[in-house]
Amino acid sequence: MPLTKEELLAIEAKAHEHRRTIIETTLCAGSGHIGGALSMIDVTTLLYSRFMRIDPDNADWEDRDRFILSKGHAGIGFVAILADIGYVDRRDLETFNLTGSNLGIHLDASKVPGVDASTGSLGHGLSIALGTALAAKQLGKEYRTFCLLGDGECQEGSVWEAAMAISHFNPPNLVTLVDRNHAQIDGMTEDVMPLEPFADKWRAFGFHTVTVDGHDFEAMNDAIREALDRKDVPTCIILDTCKGKGIGFCEGNYRWHYGGITQEMGEEAMRDLDAYYERRVAAIEWRGEE
Amino acid sequence: MGISFTSINQTKLSTGEVYCETLCELAEENPRIVALTADLGQSSKIGEFMKKFPDRFYQFGIAEQNMYGVAAGMAKAGLIPFTSSFAIFTSCRALDQVHTDICYQRANVKMISSHAGTSFGQAGTTHHSTEDIAIMRSMANLVVIVPADGMETANVVRAAVEYEGPVYIRINRGFDQLVYKELDYGYEIGKAVQLAEGTDVTIIACGSGVFQAVQASAELDAVGIKARVLNMHTIKPIDKDAILKACRDTRRIITVEDHNVIGGLGGAVAEVLAESGMSCAFRRLGLQDCFSPIGYHEDLMAIHGIDTNGIVKSVHDLLQLDFEDDDDWDDEV
Amino acid sequence: MDTRDDRYSGKIFFNAVLPLVRVIIEDVPGITASLKGKSGTFQVSAMTDEGIWATHFTVDNGVVTTTLGALDDKPTVELAFKNLRDFNGFMKGTSKKLPSIRGLMRLGILIPFMRALLKMASLLGLKEAPKEEETQRLLVKLYFYLLSSGISQLNREGHPMITEWTRKSPNRVYAWTVDGYDDVAAYLRVKAGKTKAARGRYRRSQPFFTMRFIDLESALATLLGTGDMMELVAGGKMIMEGGPEFGNMLGDYMLLVGSYAQA
Fold this sequence. Notes:
- Chain A has helices spanning 5-29, 34-51, 75-85, 125-139, 157-169, 189-192, 198-204, 217-229, 263-289; strands at residues 31-32, 66-69, 145-150, 174-180, 183-184, 187-188, 208-213, 235-240, 259-260.
- Chain A is an alpha/beta fold.
- In chain A, helix 5 (157-169) links the parallel strand 3 and strand 4 (174-180).
- Chain A is globular, with a radius of gyration of 18 Å.
- In chain C, helix 6 (133-156) crosses helix 7, helix 6 (133-156) crosses helix 8 (216-223) and helix 6 (133-156) crosses helix 10.
- By secondary structure, chain C is α+β, with helices and mostly antiparallel strands.
- Chain C has ten helices and ten strands.
- Chains in contact: A-B, B-C.
- Chain A binds chain B through residues 62, 66, 68, 109-110, 116-118, 120-121, 123-136, 138-139, 157-158, 161-162, 164-165, 168-169, and chain B through 32, 34, 55-56, 58, 60-61, 63, 65-79, 81, 96-97, 100-101, 104-106.
């Protein structure tokens, strides 16, 4: 179902809330993977608002939908959603990265409810997602598996091993998503180890591949729905995003893959996020008036 | 709960085939068991399973890292995956996945790793695995087992299914020499099996070393040397009690493994001895920190001194050594 | 002309039996007391084809030490036998030929040692087990020390039955013990032709073989030959810890020592 205006505004609000949480958490921790968290938070918000069938009271519900955050370093973004669901106590966010905390850069599936895999070493998540989806088929279950990778991550050969296998087995209910924010630690992806023609690569591996604006909820919503309906071949949704989206000093800047922020920078970031949110809401409202 | 084949079967079956037959029997009872391979179905003899349970058998092609990641995902979703690959690939190629997806997340994956040690002799070092025990031993949450023969492998597979958590099972390639005539000798993960008694020296062995050790013990017995033989099939958790008893009772220990002497069974036993504070004459037999040349497995074992003759010779050498004052031969008055 | 058997007996008496004198001195409070504060030396010797064989004791302010071989200086007291046969005969109790005694006046040393020698003779001459526990203890101890040292001496002297065994042996320890009496124990270490007899329990590791008696009575039954060994083993009174064939072997060697030490 396409999004109604109310639904869209609700998601926007939620995403905004999560972006703010990312900054708040980073302030407590002192530093964080801000860039990559801000680029993936939109699609993740959408998934958890519209698609993920989970039980807020039982994180281990056998028939739950699975979300494998293959780009595990975006945990600081994912944790905002987990807190929103209630799997994580909001107050625990203040302990992010601190000694003895259950929460840190790469979320531990054995310590944090709602985390389906302990990722962090890039290139593993897609294989795990395939295993999860194959198990569903084997066990006669209907849950869906969503796997979100980073684009730099796709430089790992193991990703393509998994891609080949996904294409071969084509388990139902597995959706592959790539947060294509064009940047990695040492620079822009195309300067470090070029990925283009990226979509063509996925196609060559047998995926129905679409590229959508990773900050356009409606476009993403349509793409995901379509992916779930498609049975003949697996789907890869490449999300064209901007690293650090929403914050002036971060946007598009690969150096904000990971960074520390001071109280002032935090305040500036919040102002930017609020302004960004207002712009987005205004655009939706303005569209509605047409 | 039947593992029903007999000794007669075993002589006709290689260890790989025994493993597969056992797995098939267990899979009949337990629908959660699935088998995975990375283009080594033929070599690891998992083919029978493929025929009987085609929709529970997964072929991943020459892509080990993916296979182990998938296995982790399957295990997390409630299946019991048995992966088959060569030990060198499990322990080196796919180690990141084994470490992070399986061990760290305690995924209930049973990793059958074949062609261990120098058992694939003719293939050379690229297919030998003489570091995997050392590597796997240091993975937390992982149980590491090296069965002595086909019969023991059957027991290990059954025990692995009953055990909740990741298990690394290291087997050879072809026909292993028979150590056991029957299944019912009381196999238990973590409990060494004493195969010969003696108080002159203890030979602690695993895998292909066990048969050689038993032969060596018989040979030594003929010249009046009584060697105890311990089948230390479980490297982790290792049977500390058996090791310390051997130290107290015999004061000389030799370890035998088709593996580098660094970090494997020998290293594990040395750790136990060193921490105990008891002194003991000690020697590790295995590859002396080298890669192996090409050859038949039996010949390579001879070259590396881990065959019967090598063990016998080492025992003789060790018995010349003394742990007490060798100068004072006066009677006490 | 000393025969081989003379020499075997001689070695056993000098090096395995005479040293027991010190054990007796230390065990019998009366004799210990009589040596208190005394110093001097006591030697028993015999002239053999190879020269003087002897064992001597040094008393230093009441403390006795034993040394195999003859003193360089003149001992305070000496029992000197003219030849080996006389000495052996005396020790076996078959000969009445007395040694010449030097230092007869040095009663302070002479008397305690003579007492010890006589006590030893009487104990080792017993055909039946004594009743008192203390005496039983001492007697078993003496036998354990005697037999372990005796086997070792036969080895050193080249007795073929013993050297055949010791030559081929890897490092092994054979022990004698009695349950409940830690001090009533001895052991023999054997390795590649060499032997060492030692007293007490072997602690470094489990001995290769232990002839273990559950009580003093059982030990005496075996040592005095009054009990049937098979019965003792069957009845659990004597436990062979280690291969039974080694137990039998050890038993044979013990009898061998006995045969040279008795009439």
